[in-house]
UniProtKB/TrEMBL annotation:
One of its GO terms (molecular function) is RNA binding. One of its GO terms (biological process) is rRNA processing. This is Pseudouridine synthase. Pfam families: PseudoU_synth_2. It is an enzyme of class 5 (isomerase). Belongs to the pseudouridine synthase RsuA family.
């Protein structure tokens, strides 16, 4: 029977169950939060990013979620440095060219600051540098893709929260907790 777990990964947690290669490390992993045998992450989420991770015991589903050829939409809330211009947003909507090639177009809109949990440690606040929030949806999932895309258009990412993967979202899942889908 297929099991699907939706987990709200906190900041500074590795998206794997062990931290091999760094003997005696104090880096946090999924095993601190999820004690369910036989489930594995469908894709990764960087240590400095937060939000939805989908875990499953179904290898085919895992591949479908994480393989870019299936174009599974992933939505993110990104706090960026600066005030986005129409031109910057349009560049993201058309797709940008990164070192590893062009990205697919993203759905992007500027949003009001979302009602999120506090991050520990908090994002560094600077009075002289404005920030804004974007909602972006991509259908790829390259390494640090959203951060690299926003940086490419001169909007460095300060905080990144993956809100949804396909049909699943973070609604009602507190940081560090999970539920079955």
């Amino acid at each position: 029977m297929t099991r699907i777990i939706l987990f709200n990964k906190p900041f500074d947690v590795l998206s794997q169950f062990t931290d091999k290669g760094t003997e005696g490390t104090t880096r946090r992993t999924l095993s601190e939060f999820i004690d369910v045998p036989g489930v594995y992450p469908a894709g990764r989420l960087d240590r400095d990013s937060e939000g939805l991770m989908v875990l499953t015991n179904n290898g085919k589903l895992q591949a479908k979620i994480s393989n870019p050829k299936f174009r599974s939409p992933k939505s993110y809330l990104a706090q960026v440095e600066g005030h986005p211009t129409d031109d910057q947003l349009e560049q993201l909507r058309k797709g940008v060219v990164l070192k590893d090639g062009p990205t697919r177009p993203a759905q992007v809109e500027q949003i009001m600051p979302p009602a999120l949990w506090d991050r520990d440690p908090p994002v560094r606040y600077r009075k002289t540098v404005p920030d804004a929030w974007l909602r972006l949806t991509i259908t790829e999932g390259r390494n640090r893709q959203v951060r690299r895309m926003t940086a490419h258009v001169d909007l460095p990412c300060l905080r990144l929260v993956r809100w949804s993967v396909g049909e699943w979202s973070l609604d009602g899942i507190a940081p560090g907790t999970w539920r079955d889908a």
